[in-house]
Specification:
By secondary structure, the protein is mainly α. It has five helices and two strands. It has a two-stranded antiparallel ribbon.
């Protein structure tokens, strides 16, 4: 079983906020597959730093608006 990442993200919410952008369109714009976008959104995959910055750039927001890492141990997913 794959250990879930502690990193959470707002990719799906950002896609919706940006005109219901499809997973396929985001994937095309950042140079990955749609399956990769799905895995990122579901927290099953943490993208490379470069890909993370590309996602933030597509939405025109800072990286910290897309990806979140808990600093308090009590914020960790169970």
């Amino acid at each position: 079983m794959v250990k879930p990442t502690r990193v959470t993200n707002s990719v799906r919410a950002l896609r919706v906020a940006h005109g219901e952008m499809s997973q396929a369109e985001l994937a095309r714009r950042i140079g990955v597959t749609r399956q990769t976008v799905i895995a990122i959104e579901q927290g099953r995959y943490s993208p490379s730093l470069e890909t993370a910055f590309q996602i933030a750039a597509v939405f025109g927001v800072p990286l910290t608006d897309v990806f979140h890492y808990p600093t308090d141990p009590q914020e960790e997913p169970s």
